[in-house]
Amino acid sequence: MKALVFHGSGKAAWEDVADPGIQDATDAIVRVDAVTICGTDLHILKGDVPEVRPGTVLGHEAVGEIVEVGSDVRTVRPGDRVLVSCITACGRCRFCREGTYGQCRDGGGWILGHLINGTQAEYVRVPHADLSTHLLPGAVDSKDAVLLADIFPTAYEIGVLNGCVRPGDTVAVVGAGPIGLAAITTARFYTPEMITAVDLAPARLDAAKHLGADAVAVAGEEAEQLVADLTQGLGADVVIEAVGVPESFEMCTRMVRPGGHVANVGVHGKPATLHLEDLWSKNVTITTGLVDTHSTPTLLCMMAAGRLPASSLVTHTFPLGAMEEAYDVFSRAADTGALKVVLGAPQHDALTVRTS
């Protein structure tokens, strides 16, 4: 089969690799019909994630058809159309029992495209398939559903829920890339008074307005002043960091009000300074986190009901074999206007769907 293989910092290629097979009784093999590229994949290519070894197939988000299952798999079977979650969950360890699947200690957590071969391929092996795949209703398009593998649960859980967004809150989202836009969309579930989006790219700020941001600002002093003006100098109740660079994190800590929340979602490749000399007396809560995907079933129901506008985040589509071109477009988002790119295998569009 073909797959996108990591060959060290700055190097990856779409090339022939061995087909995956069942290794454990809880595995499933999925034929990939839709896949996307994540900002974390770009971090890997930059060398920010040293655990990823050369020779690893990248990717941790996909929709596809089950073609084979191990003897202990109970909830899916060949022919099912499924969402492959970015987080693998054994369902038995202490963390999985608590619903914190991202911290799974029995061969789970973020492993696809990280510690084992991932989804940017024609086929993928999914360990612990019972809890790591989700059956898709026929009404949900694969191009939309693949956004529920990572960005929507990440933005919702690590940004909105960790940030404790409540009705009437003022929310600032720093970074209007895919995660930031998904955070704006899902923050609206809680009817905040105002959402302000901050970014450097005018096109992304336009997208933020389209998805529900009440105000937008270019990152920097202008953004900090706008948040101060909109909150009578108090600062935002919740600030969501969706970039992953020291400057944006430090700006978030300056934007938050006393007693507010800073929810860090961005993947940081470099240290950021925590200015405790300013923050210690302000009762500020700062949260970080790897997504657990416990919200995926809820988000999937909302998508099926037409209440989650995921499709507006997809700006570019490609055939699966155009993986290298898609990476180029996605990595040059400032020039190309890319938000999310989705790659698909159209010859597999017609799939058997089981909902019970």
Automatic annotation (TrEMBL):
InterPro entries: ADH-like_C, ADH-like_N, ADH_Zn_CS, ER, GroES-like_sf, NAD(P)-bd_dom_sf. Residues 8-343 form the Enoyl reductase (ER) domain. Gene3D superfamilies: Medium-chain alcohol dehydrogenases, catalytic domain, NAD(P)-binding Rossmann-like Domain. Keywords: Metal-binding, Oxidoreductase, Zinc. Pfam families: ADH_N, ADH_zinc_N. It comes from the Bacteria. Its cofactor is Zn(2+). Belongs to the zinc-containing alcohol dehydrogenase family. This is Zinc-dependent alcohol dehydrogenase family protein. It comes from Streptomyces lutosisoli. The lineage of its organism: Bacteria, Bacillati, Actinomycetota, Actinomycetes, Kitasatosporales.
